Amino acid sequence: xxxxxxxxxxxxxxxxxxxxxxxxxxxxxxxxxxxxxxxxxxxxxxxxxxxxxxxxxxxxxxxxxxxxxxxxxxxxxxxxxxxxxxxxxxxxxxxxxxxxxxxxxxxxxxxxxxxxxxxxxxxxxxxxxxxxxxxxxxxxxxxxxxxxxxxxxxxxxxxxxxxxxxxxxxxxxxxxxxxxxxxxxxxxxxxxxxxxxxxxxxxxxxxxxxxxxxxxxxxxxxxxxxxxxxxxxxxxxxxxxxxxxxxxxxxxxxxxxxxxxxxxxxxxxxxxxxxxxxxxxxxxxxxxxxxxxxxxxxxxxxxxxxxxxxxxxxxxxxxxxxxxxxxxxxxxxxxxxxxxxxxxxxxxxxxxxxxxxxxxxxxxxxxxxxxxx
Length: 373
Ligand code: OSB
Ligand code: MG
Description:
This protein is of the alpha/beta class. Helices cover 37% and strands 21% of the residues.
């Protein structure tokens, strides 16, 4: 792949159609960092950084990502040749600790650029072969159980293949029971605690265990593999790890300790596509199914997630809802739509979606361009 000529960062602001609440906080206006890597032949590779405005999901924020990309990641990209995105990943992994979402944004844009350069789709370049991916919905915390039940019913009618509801201590059993009561029996229902529980909540977790859930996602803290293993021994329901899995090594720890039986892969969380694919492969070798998580992405990040989710071991529906679930107007054309509970994997070059450049310009709050020295 030829050298990247310049890196353009943009911060856009895009309002969600409705606030999204998880155990650790609420998101209303999404501040999204877009990365554009310009090649020498007029092609660009695009990706978005999934870090939030506050460090409530992981330590990173959009502001730390802006710093990390401008200070370290982009300069490294611009001062050496990187024939393969995997080589860039291997180097950046050793050179800079943490900042995975910042690194991922650049690494994923490099994958898009590489796919365009080879005139192939990102999905194909990553090794994916599904023509479409199954769609699940992640429903934020609601004011009361009745409101949640109404959301679950609606999602069932819309054709989603799996429903997940957010919980936290004190806002769990009554809510999940209400969801369970209206969720069709053949539609998998799961919960996501976003690391808000501890062993003090074992009674509640045991009761959740009796509700026939497909999985309980990330009940304990991100560093808590040992306690997740103790909990998994107490429960019949599969534990799915999200925040805890940041690398292939964490997958091996999870397997060694039996901390859970399912993995949610978010390319932003693990540093990009290279590591996501490695996690996918290692999980497959251990017969651990994976699914693609979401971070309230725009159509750009969604395109990356959909391409990744076309790999064979993404055998459970992902948090890959259509554009209209999040935005009045997405920044890609056409917007992502769901058919029979699936999103189609684009076959065009790279991420395979067109960008609404005028709209992106309207939404841009700040921008910086860094050129090859
Ligand atoms: O834990 O999966 C999560 C959103 C923000 C932070 C964490 C999570 C989520 C979601 C959103 O569940 C899923 C989506 O993008 O639809
Ligand atoms: Mg989660």
